[in-house]
Design goal:
The chain has 179 residues and is an all-alpha fold. It has nine helices and no strands. Helix content is 74%, strand content 0%. The radius of gyration is 20 Å and the shape is elongated.
Length: 179
């Protein structure tokens, strides 16, 4: 595609160059859409957390490319960044989870789950002050998705899941109890 783009820039009068560029761009888009569908299917079919995390990494990369060209992919990107971060928390990838969530928070799409994953990503890295700010800023707000009444309910439910999975770092268990 890059070669055809250069040819079109150099010689815009040649309709054949423009036609081939358009054809290649269309095929690339179809291939990327198929890639997205395959990755989503793989995520749904596997139970292995490590494999799901890897599939989300590939899905996020593909969606980043699509979202930069078409706004309609921004929502999918936000949700996939959040899900990638969620699985990262269970794998101990706390800094990576924080980075993914921060990226999603920078997108022009409201995703209610982002603060619920940002706070533990911060807390599990020992960033207690930052985590407490996230908790305090939204704990009493209504949670607009799912069955939770407030963010506090979502936070507590997540903490129970983290505790059950045994992923809370020993050094920060007292901080978790405080929160």
């Amino acid at each position: 595609a890059a070669i055809w783009e250069k040819l079109v820039l150099i010689a815009p009068q040649y309709a054949e160059f423009q036609r081939f560029l358009s054809l290649i761009q269309e095929r690339i888009q179809k291939l990327e859409n198929l890639t997205i569908l395959i990755l989503q299917y793989q995520i749904q079919q596997t139970k292995d957390t490590t494999q799901i995390y890897a599939y989300y990494a590939a899905l996020v990369d593909t969606l980043r490319s699509r979202a930069s060209q078409q706004f309609r992919y921004v929502e999918d990107l936000s949700q996939s960044l959040n899900s990638h971060a969620w699985y990262g928390l269970f794998l101990g990838e706390f800094a990576q989870a924080e980075a993914l969530i921060q990226e999603a928070m920078g997108l022009p799409y409201k995703n209610s789950y982002l603060p619920t994953n940002l706070a533990p990503a911060l807390l599990f890295q020992g960033k207690k002050k930052e985590a407490l700010k996230v908790y305090a800023s939204c704990r009493n707000k209504p949670f607009e998705v799912g069955s939770y009444k407030t963010y506090a309910d979502a936070f507590l439910d997540d903490m129970k899941a983290f505790e059950k999975a045994g992923i809370i770092p020993e050094a920060y268990k007292a901080d978790v109890e405080e929160v």
